[in-house]
């Protein structure tokens, strides 16, 4: 079991499922990314640069796609709390897995330039 597995196992089963879904999307779209814990969060690096990271919290999942990932999807993120580099996906709502997939795909394309 690696450190990201250990991180995910610290959460209730319902949250584990959400975190695992995000992780699987990242690993599917960026299989060459390296996975590690940084700032106490699962972090993914691609081509030597930070791609995305995510974290579980009491009431939401935090997803961190760099400011560019927020700006590019600003219109699709109006239903979520965002900051310069953070999106909060509330635990009391379905996870927008298709949107997360789009954002990760966008970030992979950015990192591959």
From TrEMBL:
SUPFAM superfamilies: YdhG-like. It comes from the Bacteria. Residues 16-108 form the YdhG-like domain. Pfam families: DUF1801. InterPro entries: YdhG-like. This is DUF1801 domain-containing protein. The lineage of its organism: Bacteria, Bacillati, Bacillota, Clostridia, Eubacteriales.
